[in-house]
Amino acid sequence: MPKKFPPEFKRDVVAVARWGEIPVKEVAADFDISESTLWRWMQQADVDDGIKDGLTTAESLPVRLTCGVLGFSTQAFYKWQANPISDREWNDAHFTNVIVDIHRDDPEFGYRFIADELERSGINTCERRVRRLCRDHKVWSTTVKKGRAGSGKRPGPAVHDDLVMRNFNAATPNAIWLTDITEHGTGEGKL
After folding, report:
1. How many CA atoms does the CB half-sphere of 92 hold within 13 Å?
2. In angstroms, rounded to a whole number, what is the distance separating the alpha carbons of residues 38 and 17?
3. Distance CA 56, CA 37 (A)
């Protein structure tokens, strides 16, 4: 495991190397560090001092520490860094663009018709993938009603016209007759 040097020590060694009276190779040998380590410290000092662009020491966090806090392995991080977007995500993004275009042309189409349109246009994919992409991006047919009919969530249309205009006060007897249709559930069925 490499040695850990305090920031003050690094700053002092970089100051001596920048002074320029002694070659970098001799400065590294005098402080018992490798020449490549000293060059790396000098590059980081240039970034910290604003001479070069990059992440300063205060802005950067060690990868091991960050991955440990987030619950990832460093190997998974470096694999992701090498290829941040997988082939599947890339293809899903292209399919989603085509799906949204098809839906914009015909908003009545559900995922089954969209899958058929994709097949007709030469894009081979399965119906389940189209369903997943439609669900994830909220691409739904405009003719679909949410929920089950008669579930009690929304009242349905009036069975008959309102002939009394919601005025239930009769001026004379037998002028207005009203009834209530109520169903009562029993063990043998509804009454």
Report:
1. 14
2. 8
3. 17
Report pLDDT digits (tens) over 122-172.
988 899 999 999 999 988 888 756 655 555 566 666 667 777 787 878 888
SS3 24: helix
Nearest to 137 by CA among 85, 86, 83, 94: 94
Distance CA 143, CA 128 (A): 20
Distance CA 110, CA 117 (A): 11
Tokens of 163: 């002939």
> Chain centroid to CA 160: how far?
49
- Give the integer Cα–Cα distance in Å for 32 and 134: 62
**Location of structure tokens 């899903």:** 92
Report pTM: 0.43
* Contact present, 41 and 11 (Cβ < 8 Å): no
Q: Could you give the CA distance from residue 134 to residue 110 in angstroms, rounded to a whole number?
A: 9
Residues in the chain: 191
Q: What are phi and psi of 155, to 5 degrees?
A: -70, 145
| DSSP symbols for 60-97 | ---HHHHHHHHT--HHHHHHHHH-SS-HHHHHHHHHHH
